[in-house]
Please model this.
Amino acid sequence: MEANESSGGYFILMGFSDQPQLELSLSLLVFVSYTITLMGNTTIVILTFLDSRLHTPMYFFLRNLSFLDICFTTSIVPQMLMNIWGHNKRISYIGCLVQCSVALALGSTECVLLAVMAVDRYVAVCWPLHYSTIMHPRLCHLLAAASWSSGFVNSLLQSSLAMVLPLCGHRQVDHFICELLVIIKLSCVDTRSMDFKMFIARLIILAVPVSIILTSYACIAWAVAKISSAEGQRKAFGTCASHLVVVSLFYGTIMSMYLQPKNNYSQDQAKFLALIYTIIAPTLNPLIYTLRNKDINRAMKKVMGTDQT
Model:
């Protein structure tokens, strides 16, 4: 984005403005989802801090995921609702660049963090007697730091590539957020080389964590299969079920968007897929992780003063 798109410029986020009735319904859904996201994830963050029984690696990473989801949705939803409910659909060049970079950084961080959580589950199931020794607090903090730093490094690399593209006065963004791939489409130069470089970056930030997740769960499945009792198998699987659901929801939508040729889907499809992984998934995460979770429910009762144990 060269000098002809200076910091005084702006973009127009079209969102779903071509479908006014759908836009209003979506805005209500987004508002409710955002409220649930804030309440649910904030509750998890607070409970895992206050209850000493939740000071374990699994809940440490869950706290990171919950905080990440709060930040991720907050980087998108307020601007989106202002865009839908207001008459001015403009966003400044700087505002667009910040939203684009921050959302990409947080989304990339979640990709890596989910892989780290899969490794934690692998150690818990396959090496239960050595779990506390292997997943030492120092290692947990290092893994969390690596997740956050890799996400922001990926965002820095991809955003810096996009910033040098001339937009030649094109300002209408056919999306509800400033999304990097959509901004690149506004460029008036050949972006094939840029597209390839960014595809490689996306492939690394997605394929490497997915490989780790698949390998971890293959080992978990092998270990569970060798457990003789049905109760033991059920308990081992129960520690991983929530994470598997979250991984499937997040990676299913994000890989559909970013790893298939862009000509294979319409922009409307891209927007609905983006809604799922940016808004719906963070809303469901706290529900998935807390539903039938005895530790979280016990911590909730303890904080509310109704725990009789």
Q: What stands out?
A: The radius of gyration is 21 Å. The longest helix spans residues 93-126. The chain is about 75% helix and 5% strand. The first strand starts at residue 10 and ends at 13.
